[in-house]
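Let's inspect a concrete specimen:
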Amino acid sequence: MWNILQFLGEGTYVSIKDAKSNAGRGAKEPRVLTLLRNNVTFRILPIGITSKKDVWSANDYSRVVGLFADGSTWAYKGWPMETVDVFNSTAGFHLFYADEKPHANCKQWIVEKIAIDKYKRHNDAVAVGKIWNCIDHFISTKMPEYLPENWKNPHMK
């Protein structure tokens, strides 16, 4: 949550440590973030607090279009499905440093494995483009009702 807006919104990866220090002393991790892309609002929610009823409703799980996985299985404890099935129903991503190996669990899950180079920030935009392309493809094939041309304005007849 500390660095996701800068990464997905601006195309630049900042380590969590640096993002926390940039937020200022005493800053708290955001619970909910909003990102606007192509006139579409994406609500970003952290997995670590999915069990908190004030953040996620039962309907939220069925509307997830993208999910970042770090390999931890505990993060999906409150989901209404098995961990493996979570990645069958959403576009999953596992970011890892290029000089390290992906997490063993993520090798078994259906997630796009994306290497981030610690020293080549100009490659970050390519990684972000890959993520958005996967999300766009997921929406167009699995959730076409989320395509802007399929939206219904409840105020129009």
